[in-house]
Design goal:
about 120 residues, alpha+beta, Ribosomal Protein S8, Chain: A, domain 1, five-stranded antiparallel beta sheet, globular
Length: about 120
């Protein structure tokens, strides 16, 4: 059995929701929320291909930044790699993927692209 890399990051509500989405879409192996300090932290086990050891997350690109926010309406929700990747949006319905935003017919702030 291959050893998996574990990453620990400071926790926030947004990071917790993005972690849940990455787990549901199969980009990470597992995660654990730790509330040992005031802020808490998140432990994430990264996922790799068993034979070739290629990481499941090839690219994670931050789109919206504090200096330049990127908002989209329902007609302009981005498709990442023609549907093979995932765009994570912050909407009035919470933090959701691009496909969920299309079905719920909501727009919002584009946080990142994952593929």
């Amino acid at each position: 059995m291959a050893k998996h890399k574990v990453v620990e990051i400071p926790a926030s509500k947004v990071k917790k929701e993005i972690t849940k989405i990455l787990f549901d879409k199969g980009y990470i192996l597992s995660y654990k929320f730790l509330d040992d300090t005031v802020q808490g932290s998140i432990k994430i086990a990264l996922k790799y291909h068993p034979k070739s050891h290629v990481p499941a997350i090839k690219s994670l690109k931050r789109v919206s930044r504090p200096g330049l926010r990127k908002y989209v309406d329902t007609d302009n929700i981005p498709r990442v790699l023609n549907g093979l990747g995932v765009a994570v949006l912050s909407t009035s319905h919470g933090i959701i993927t691009d496909k969920e935003a299309r079905t719920q017919n909501v727009g919002g702030e584009v946080l990142c692209y994952v593929y």
